[in-house]
Write a structure and sequence with these properties.
CATH topology of one domain: Immunoglobulin-like
Strand content: 15-25%
Structural class: alpha/beta
Largest sheet: 5 strands, mixed
Radius of gyration: 26 Å
Shape: globular
Strand order of the largest sheet: 3-9-8-5-6
CATH class of one domain: Mainly Beta
CATH architecture of one domain: Sandwich
Number of helices: 22
């Protein structure tokens, strides 16, 4: 007779929280169990005491009590299908009343229109009620405000109701039946005869126009997220913020205020500055700190010109509208930068205690006392957005049907602006990584704080929505780094090794629905970087959502003709050898433009410190101008683009 094995309290708590009990490794043959100690360490990282069975039982009871107190889920994602529009609007109560109760529902549409319905909740414990509605909400972000009144008390709850499409935009929507190719560049590594020692948006514009002349469909770039641009804080995959962009990519020569600043223009022509710029251009490495030391004084001067603008001017109106759309996140981000400069530290954990709390009175006083500096950083983001928008327009004029192909990193710096602004979203005592696999026998710890899936849901996915929307801005395609993170992420508790980590689940259907909604709104498609340990069924689910997979030539046993229809084929990635690097035996990494230039040296070597290799600093050996005039490069492009129609 078989004996039923009862789950322990720790196991039941793990199931409720979403800690995966075991996973199939990358070989597809070996199951790895999540150790009890790993679960307990992850609970502790989330602020949950599960150090004993009794503590785990208490945590479970608290979790269930929290769920019962939740009249309505804070957010609900509903797919709009052909038959959805004919259905009633439904309301699901987490704790329905025992007796008849009067209810009132307000639906506030994203457009601002409001509808109201009223009635009596039927007797019993029925949790869901279908409410007749004249017109089902369209795609978008709406709000439900629900009142229910029993004889004992009135309860009120709000819910964000997100209506999403069934799939993302596809390449076919943009290209028809044609195939397409494009160039992918690490923008910071791009050389030109005119930049300031780092690739900028004018260089990106040149790449766009060149790609259009070659018959290409897109130009891809590394994540453009904001960085500290100093010391080791230069990886585009460990940004200060994933919402906002890196000021290093601004071309100060094309800032509109320069026309009204003859003194600044004269300064740019000074022989001493020109000599410094020439040295930075000739340097084989990007010197982020030195570049910004030259750019920031110019930007400060141009911002002063902007501050003296006439109220009501077109540029002033555009700036005010930009701030209105991007706040409150924009002002919090700008405040972070201003504080970091004032205390000379980009780690908010090293700041005075009163400044570590973004909502403190001390921070508010700092904003008032340093209003000009805060506004400078808001204005820089405004100008970054303007210049990137001009590149997108250039892509359209150059005939690129896709345009810019941007990149969304998997995480953010543990001490940057995002974690400072929204500390409740992030788990500070664990890091995102990857389990042991053939690529890394001991696994990887990326040092990025994971987002607490429960906190993300409580916040109605606002941060995730901002991330995806920012990634799509001015783009025709978006690459989501480590797309498996929409389903589950590998967490490594602090003090333990990746071998002791575990996967934690996220609400994939909700996140995929939001991605689809933003894809449709932007008219852009998604590429999901699905390399590494991929859970069974994930690639099939991504295909259902029309998210393209990532197929890297070095990893694929089949020829490109046998790749899935929804796939982006790449020769390599930034963490893998270039073509020439493989031929010469070099251990190098790249992004598609490096291969055209015949690069050998690595852009990034994962797990290798800056003392051993200057990751994210190596420039290309050829300038854009040299590549455009090179017969070898032209021949390589014609070869790689063959058969694309």
């Amino acid at each position: 007779m078989e004996t039923e094995v009862r789950e322990s309290a720790v196991e039941r708590l793990a199931d409720a929280i979403g800690i995966v009990p075991k996973y199939l490794d990358q070989t597809g043959t070996e199951w790895r169990e999540t150790a009890a100690g790993s679960r307990i360490a992850l609970f502790a990282a989330m602020g949950i005491d599960a150090s004993s069975d009794a503590a785990s039982e208490r945590a479970l009871r608290a979790l269930r009590l929290e769920e019962r107190r939740e009249l309505l889920a804070p957010v609900r994602v509903v797919e709009l299908t052909d038959d959805t529009a004919t259905r009633h609007l439904s309301v699901r109560l987490a704790s329905p009343p025992n007796a008849d109760a009067q209810w009132r529902l307000e639906l506030i549409l994203e457009s601002g229109e409001t509808g109201i319905a009223e009635g009596r909740w039927p007797r019993g414990r029925r949790a869901e009620l279908a409410i007749p509605w004249p017109e089902y909400p369209a795609l978008g972000y709406h709000r439900l405000r629900f009142h229910i009144d029993t004889q004992r008390r009135e309860r009120v709850a709000e819910q964000m109701l997100i209506i999403v499409p069934s799939r993302c935009v596809t390449p076919r929507d943009l290209l028809g039946d044609a195939r397409a190719f494009g160039l992918v560049a690490n923008l910071y590594s791009v050389r030109s005869e005119r930049n300031w020692g780092v690739g900028d948006f004018t260089d990106l514009d040149a790449l766009v126009r060149w790609t259009g002349a070659l018959g290409g469909a897109f130009v891809g770039v590394n994540p453009l997220h904001a960085l500290a641009n100093r010391g080791p804080d230069i990886s585009p995959y460990s940004p200060v913020s994933r919402i906002f962009r890196n000021s290093v990519y601004l071309n100060v020569d094309t800032v509109p205020e320069l026309r009204d600043a003859p003194n600044v223009a004269a300064r740019l022509d000074h022989p001493e500055l020109l000599a410094e710029l020439e040295a930075l251009r000739e340097d084989p490495y990007v010197r982020y700190e030195q570049v910004m030391a030259l750019k920031m004084p110019v930007l400060e001067a141009l911002h002063s010109v902007f501050e003296r603008r006439q109220a009501g001017s077109e540029r002033a109106h555009a700036y005010d509208e930009f701030v209105r759309q991007e706040d409150p996140e924009l002002t919090r981000f700008a405040t972070f930068l201003a504080i970091a400069e004032s205390v000379n530290s980009w780690s908010w954990r090293d700041w005075p205690a009163a400044l570590q709390d973004a909502t403190s009175e001390t921070v508010k006083r700092f904003q008032r006392e340093h209003a000009g500096r805060v506004d400078l950083h808001r204005w820089i983001q405004f100008e970054l957005d303007r210049q990137l928008g001009l590149v997108a327009e250039s892509a359209r004029r150059s005939g690129l049907p896709i345009g810019l192909y941007q990149d969304l990193a998997i995480g953010t710096s543990p001490t940057g602006a995002d974690t400072w602004s929204m500390p409740n979203l992030f788990v500070q005592r664990a890091s995102v990584g990857s389990p042991p696999d053939p690529y890394s026998a001991s696994g990887q710890n990326w040092g990025l704080p994971p987002i607490d899936p429960r906190a993300l849901r409580r916040d109605c996915y606002r941060y995730f929505i901002r991330l995806v929307r920012s990634g799509f801005r001015h783009a025709g395609a978006l690459r989501i780094d480590h797309v498996m993170g929409l389903f589950r992420l590998f967490w490594v508790p602090h003090g333990l090794t990746p071998a002791d980590g575990a996967f934690v689940r996220y609400r994939a259907d909700d996140l995929l629905g939001i991605v689809a909604l933003e894809s449709v709104r932007a008219g852009a498609f998604i590429v999901g970087e699905d390399l590494g340990t991929v859970e069974e069924g994930v690639r099939e689910r991504l295909a259902e959502q029309a998210i393209l997979g990532y197929r890297v030539v070095w990893f694929e046993p089949d020829p490109p003709a046998r790749y899935p229809a929804l796939a982006l084929a790449a020769v390599t990635t930034h963490d893998l050898p270039t073509i020439r690097g493989v031929w010469t035996g070099a251990d190098a990494s790249h992004q598609a433009l490096d291969d055209l230039a015949g690069e050998v040296d690595a852009v990034n070597l994962p797990g290798v410190g800056p003392d051993q290799h200057p990751s994210w600093m190596r420039k290309m050996s050829m300038t854009i101008e040299e590549m455009q005039s090179s017969d070898e490069v032209s021949k390589a492009v014609r070869c790689s683009g063959r058969g694309r129609k």
